[in-house]
UniProtKB/TrEMBL annotation, chain A:
Pfam families: Complex1_49kDa. NDH-1 is composed of 14 different subunits. Subunits NuoB, C, D, E, F, and G constitute the peripheral sector of the complex. This is NADH-quinone oxidoreductase subunit D. The lineage of its organism: Bacteria, Pseudomonadati, Bacteroidota, Flavobacteriia, Flavobacteriales. InterPro entries: NADH_Q_OxRdtase_suD, NADH_UbQ_OxRdtase_49kDa_CS, NDH1_su_D/H, NiFe-Hase_large. Belongs to the complex I 49 kDa subunit family. Residues 141-411 form the NADH-quinone oxidoreductase subunit D domain. It catalyses: a quinone + NADH + 5 H(+)(in) = a quinol + NAD(+) + 4 H(+)(out). It comes from Flavobacterium ginsengiterrae.
Length: 412, 182, 173
């Protein structure tokens, strides 16, 4: 049986031949293949199993490798934003804003306070969408389909807010160097207020379905735990690390875009198991809602939404047609002939899954010399074989869902 | 009631009498197949999230007969390929398509599945029609749920008008042979 | 008490003398270069020292510089982070162009396992002592290293791209 699935020189084939159980049963190999209903995204795991228990796992990734880093070496800076969208596509505004902040650090541009607050609002909305998907799909994997249908309605509401701001639903390509491409319409603020009214009761209902639910607790408590030391050694960041007990959050450690003005706690779990990850994400949604409310209250007056950097920010069309300098700036920006210093920058933002870093090395030309994305999913997925050792097969599925591995970010 | 904008589906052409309705086999089979297409969601990347939005309550795809998504190829009618297919993934896509039983249809959702999309690189397959025959292409990056539903409706038109004998006809066998699918 | 750049520089030069050099503050991250054979000792020192405490490996990646001299054609960049003092540090190691190899740090930081595999996959840099150095993102059968500058981005097997529409003529491509 094992000859059909594995080449005989594979490590698992040798283990199966050598090991004999007392009751005469053999070990088996299961291919949790790239296309599987419960794995969200395509990654393969070859599992060595003893009945229903998993002894070892061998992951294979790269089934959606789109060579982002190679593409980025051939594109001017503005054209790299659509690439960043498609990494963690559940919360694409965070990726976009992270990229713009990296460029602003490179070019030494100071973004006005109001634009920073607007960025904070959009990033927290994106974090809410990411956690909505992760937690509701975790619910679907344990068999509770209703929660997914209820909260997905609110993802539609957030999509409507994105459409008011930038025109797109999922892959937003939002913002420009120095701020936003247009000011937010009053309709966007109205929809945001309506969302802030309607969402909290729905999220409370969603939480009540799961947090004290006997079946959910049986399936998730003490499943897939990881200690804090192990998590730090494996490079965990984000909600997965905070569930293990370490309160590292990039928004607090290296505040960016005025996060230091806001008052929020960083929820931390205890044992790092699936239930803790679920609860940490739930609590983070409440914190994000509180940050959005604070940002709306403290929003500075006026309507400036971008920095005054004519070298990098497209001038308004009326000026392009009527004034010579604007025409020249427009031409230079579109052609990519903008002054770029030679430098190396590393900037990190707190993405939905952890520390999303951008390492940019320029050489003065219109495209980056080297752009590397520090993708949190890629780094913490290494711990997955260790987390499922000794677990049942259905537990492995739950652990994978709760880690929130997004294939676009895994392979880039 | 009579001036409402609701489009009533009309029965196929045929002879009606007391207690019987005679029509062509093709029409009845086409009607039955078109309104019960079970999808196999082959979701790889961002278009998969828009598919989840299409299956959710707002843009319910289940109204069109796709109530039960089947992840087993043997039990699915249409293969919805959503997202970028890389060259590493192409043999697996091929295997899934070959395991599907006739009649089977393929919708390529999104720019990446139709033609490689924005990723013109060494590792991305430039369109799934390099490995499997495709019936409907839905462009967009990602396409809105309304567009995906439109793609499914176009497929329904195709299915309604398809002949029952098509799958054993020499043209179809030639099409499969051109993709090296036995 | 915050960790100052001068403090780091002094501690490192007194332990490693001439194997660490070119200390400078690149924008907001303190950067230094190191020589390839001392890298494991350097990283272990940075992790275990009670003052420096750079206990988290943020990132590991490679860069290709085909225009440099042959001893500095490839670079491996390590980003380390100290969460207690919120301090980041970047270490660059330049490698030979013909045979780029460097010792692995996967026994010091478990998270560097896949990052080194990715760097091998893209650049062909050999990590000596790595438990499983094979390709991770590309197909296993691939022979060339795609992120090197001489490798083309586009799929060379395409037949349906009409060069006229892309402005490609015999003279410019």
């Amino acid at each position: 049986m094992s000859e059909l699935l594995l080449p005989p020189e594979h490590r698992y084939a040798k283990i199966i031949k050598e090991r004999h159980n007392e009751d005469g049963s053999e070990l088996s190999v299961l291919n949790l293949g790239p296309t599987h209903p419960a794995t969200h995204g395509i990654f393969q795991n070859i599992l060595l199993m003893d009945g229903e228990r998993i002894l070892e796992a061998e992951p294979t990734i790269g089934y959606i490798h789109r060579a982002f880093e190679k593409i980025a070496e051939n594109r001017p800076f503005y054209q790299i934003t659509p690439l960043t969208d498609r990494m963690n596509y559940c919360s694409s505004p965070i990726n976009n804003m992270g990229w713009w902040m990296t460029l602003e650090k490179l070019l030494g541009i100071e973004v006005p306070k109001r634009a920073q607050y607007l960025r904070v609002i959009v990033m927290e909305l994106a974090r809410i969408t990411d956690h909505i998907i992760c937690n509701s799909i975790l619910g679907v994997d344990t068999g509770a389909y209703t929660g997914f249908l209820y909260v997905f309605q609110f993802r539609e509401k957030i999509y409507e807010i994105y459409e008011e701001i930038c025109g797109a639903r999922l892959t937003t390509n939002m913002g420009r160097i120095g701020g936003f491409e247009r000011d937010w319409s009053p309709e966007a603020f109205r929809k945001l207020d309506k969302f802030l009214e309607e969402f909290p009761p729905a999220w409370k209902e969603f939480e009540n379905l799961f947090e004290r639910n006997r079946i959910f607790l049986d399936r998730t408590v003490n499943v897939g735990g990881i200690t804090a030391e192990k998590a730090m050694a494996y490079g965990f960041t984000g909600p997965n690390l905070r569930a293990a007990g370490v309160d590292y959050d990039v928004r607090v450690a290296h505040p960016y875009s005025s996060y230091e003005d806001f008052d929020f706690i960083v929820p931390v779990g205890k044992s790092g198991d699936t239930y803790d990850r679920f609860c940490v994400r739930n609590a983070e949604v409440w914190e994000s809602l509180s940050i959005i409310r604070q940002a709306l209250e403290k929003m500075p007056e006026g309507n400036e939404y971008h920095a005054e950097v004519p070298d990098y920010y497209l001038p308004p069309k009326e000026d392009v047609y009527n004034s010579m300098e604007s025409l020249i700036y427009h031409f230079k920006i579109v052609m990519g002939e903008v002054p770029v210093p030679v430098s190396e920058i590393y900037h990190a933002v707190e993405g939905g899954n952890g520390e999303l870093g951008f390492y940019l090395s320029t050489d003065g030309s219109r495209t980056p010399y080297r752009l590397h994305f520090r993708r949190p999913c890629f780094i913490y997925y290494q711990a997955f074989p260790e987390m499922i050792k000794g677990a049942l097969l259905s537990d492995a599925i739950i652990i994978l869902s709760s880690l929130n591995v997004i294939a676009g970010e895994l392979d880039a | 009631m009579s001036d409402s904008k609701v489009n009533m589906v009309s029965p196929p052409e045929g002879l009606t009498g007391e207690g019987f309705f005679a029509t062509k086999l093709n029409d009845v089979v086409g009607l039955a197949r078109a309104n019960s297409l079970w999808p196999l969601p082959f979701a790889t990347s961002c278009c998969g999230i828009e598919f989840m939005a299409t299956m959710a309550a707002h843009y319910d795809l289940a109204r069109f007969g796709s109530e039960r998504v089947s992840f087993s190829p043997r039990q699915a009618d249409m293969l919805l390929v959503m997202g970028t297919i890389s060259k590493k993934m192409a043999p697996i896509l091929r295997q899934v398509y070959e395991q599907m039983s006739e009649p089977r249809w393929v919708i390529a959702v999104g720019a990446c599945a139709s033609s490689g999309g924005v990723f013109d690189t060494y590792s991305v397959l430039q369109g799934i029609d390099k490995v499997i025959p495709v019936d409907v292409y839905v462009p967009g990056c990602p396409p809105r749920p309304e567009q995906i539903v439109d793609g499914v409706m176009r497929l329904q038109e195709l299915v309604k008008s398809e002949s029952v004998r098509r799958r054993s006809s020499p043209e179809y066998q030639e099409l499969l042979a051109s993709y090296n699918i036995s | 008490m915050a960790l100052e750049n001068t403090q780091i520089q002094n501690k490192l030069t007194e332990t490693f003398n001439n194997d660490v050099f070119n200390f400078h503050e690149e924008r907001d991250i303190f950067t230094l270069e190191a020589s390839a054979d001392k890298i494991t000792a350097l990283i272990l020192f940075l992790k275990n020292d009670s003052e420096l405490q750079f206990h988290f490996l943020t990132d590991l990646c490679g860069i290709h510089y085909p225009d440099n001299e042959s001893e500095r054609q490839f670079a491996v960049v390590y980003h380390l982070h100290n969460w207690f003092e919120n301090k980041r540090i970047r270490i660059k190691v330049y490698l030979n162009g013909e045979k780029p190899e460097i010792k692995t740090i996967s026994n010091i930081f478990l998270s560097s396992n896949w990052m080194e595999r990715e760097t091998y996959d893209f650049y062909g840099i050999d990590f000596i002592g790595h438990p499983q150095l094979k390709r991770i993102l590309n197909m296993d059968e691939m022979v060339s290293f795609p992120m090197r500058k001489e490798f083309p981005m586009e799929d060379s097997g395409r037949t349906d791209k009409d060069d006229r529409f892309f402005g490609r003529t015999v003279s410019n491509c």
